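[Automated response] Your request has been received and processed.

Submitted sequence:
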Amino acid sequence: MLAASSKHLVALRGPEAATQIGELSAATVLNRVAKLHHCPAVLEDSRLHVLLEKVAANVPVARPQSLASTAWSIAKLQVKDAPLLTSIAAAALAKLSEFGTQEMSNTAWSFAKLSLCHVPFLDAIAAESRALIWAARTQELSNTAWALATQVL
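Generated structure:
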């Protein structure tokens, strides 16, 4: 199950082991779990919950790529953790000028996929997207447009 998705997860035997994984590694492991997720039992695996705790602890200092990857992974796994997503939105708002078009698109998509409407975050994404529209690829434009259009404000 989870252990097959990454060598890091093999080492996770308890909450204390999570401290051995850094910010980028935790987001990367979570991303790999989300990409390989084929089994509902993954959501019940205690190692996933340890990993989510580690990711949550890193959110305030996470880089844009880690924030976007974490949000995408949570949405892909359908983990409805509103406090974690709210902290991601707060951290992303503080660093939105550092986000590239893909990070912005993926993060907006993630919130829409989980039906979490964070108005200040969405307003900032909409404003920042206008400034970066010419740098965005088609997929990023369509994901961002879909995300903003599907949110009920």
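Summary generated for your ticket: Residues 2-150 form one domain. Residues 23-36 form the longest helix (14 residues).
If you did not submit this request, please reply to this message.
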